[in-house]
Every structure is written in structure tokens, then in C-alpha cells.
Amino acid sequence: MYELQGLMRHSEAALGEALAKEGRCVFADGPLSYFATMRQEVVGVIKRIIVPYVGAAEFSLVQRLVPGERTPLFSIQAGGYERFSCFLRLASGRAIDHPLAGIVRIEIGAAVGLEKARALADFAACQLPRFASTSMRDPRAPQNLLPVGALEEELRRRLGDALLVRRAIERRLSELRTE
User: Fold this and answer.
1) Among 37, 9, 11, 43, residue whose Cα is nearest residue 24
2) Which of 3-7, 121-125, 135-139, 146-150 has the lowest mean pLDDT?
3) Are 34 and 10 in contact (CB under 8 A)?
4) Using one digit for the tens of pLDDT, what is the confidence trace for 98-128?
5) What is d(CA 93, CA 72) in angstroms, rounded to the nearest whole number?
6) What backbone phi and psi angles, to 5 degrees, belong to 105?
């Protein structure tokens, strides 16, 4: 299954790189590990915050962000590549939501330089909140952006019955192991 996910991520990176080379800003769903050395305008959007990457005092600022506001950039040197990152509030969560609902972490490859990274982070803070989903539309709202949710929905529709697809994948993986 990891091999299939790796192929998907490599394909996404190739498409993202091609679009970025045309002068477009690309927002990638997830971390930039497959875009590690790119100098183009690619912004990774991480929906789940597992590691804060900053101290407790700095991280306390994250919960106080208003929609469209971001934290200052910080540098991350982990996972074999360097990148700039910040937290961004897409939308306010509901009263019953976790305090980090509506918060994403974005990352930009360090190869673009600090000034370009700052400009991309500002652009993301301006644009991404426009695409925040709602809980009526997506249970992962507001972090799962509307275009991502729509693409996932369309891909599920095109794939057909999820159980049949899973069985076919499992059968093929089993065949590959016996070859």
C-alpha cells in the first residue's frame, strides 16, 4: 500500500512542478517531502498538526489567530530537507470543535529564499481561507479545502464501489508478492 501511495505522491509532485514552472502558485495537499529541492512557488498545506515545531510560548499564539491570519515563519530542518513554515487559521471552528479546528500548517521549500517564502505565506493567508469547507459539506471541515474535498468525491465516484476496488487492489498486491 505504501508503494501505491509513493507512486501517487511522485505523480502529484511531477504535476505540481510542471504547473509551478509555468509561473503558477501550487498548493499541495500535505507536506512537501516530494518537492524538497524545488525553487518554484509550491506551498504544502498540512491539515493535521501533530508536531508543533515551536516552543509552547510561540505555539500559544496559534489558538488566538483569526481567519486569514498567520504566525511568523519559522525554519524546519527535519526529514532530510529544509523548509519555512507557519500556522494559518482558515476559519473559526464551531463551539464544540477542538481549539485548533480551522488551523493548518503551511510549508515552503527553503530553496525559494526567505523573502519569497514570506510572500508565498502572505498569499496563502489571503487565498486559502476562501476555500475552507464547512461541517455541513465535509466532516473534516474547515481544514479539508473545498477543491480537495471535491476532487476526492469525484475520484471516489469514478472508482466505483469502494469494497470492490479494495478487493482488486489486495488481489493485485497478493499476486505481486508471489511473482
Assistant:
1) 43
2) 3-7
3) yes
4) 889 999 999 999 999 999 999 999 999 999 9
5) 22
6) -110, 135
Could you tell me the residue ranges of all domains in the chain?
2-131
> Residue 90: its pLDDT value, please?
97
What is the pTM for the complete model shown?
Answer: 0.85
Residues in the chain: 179
Q: What is the mean pLDDT of residues 60-72?
A: 96
Question: How close are the terminal C-alpha atoms of the chain, in Å?
Answer: 17
d(Cα 129, Cα 110) in Å, to the nearest integer?
24
Q: H/E/C letters for each residue in the chain?
A: CHHHHHHHHHHHHHHHHHHHHCCCCEEEECCCHHHCCCCCCEEEEECCCCCCCCCHHHHCCHHHCCCCCECCCEEEEECCEEEEEEEEECCCCCCCCCCCCCEEEEEEEHHHCHHHHHHHHHHHHHHHHHHCCCCCCCCCCCCCCHHHHHHHHHHHHHHCCHHHHHHHHHHHHHHHHHC
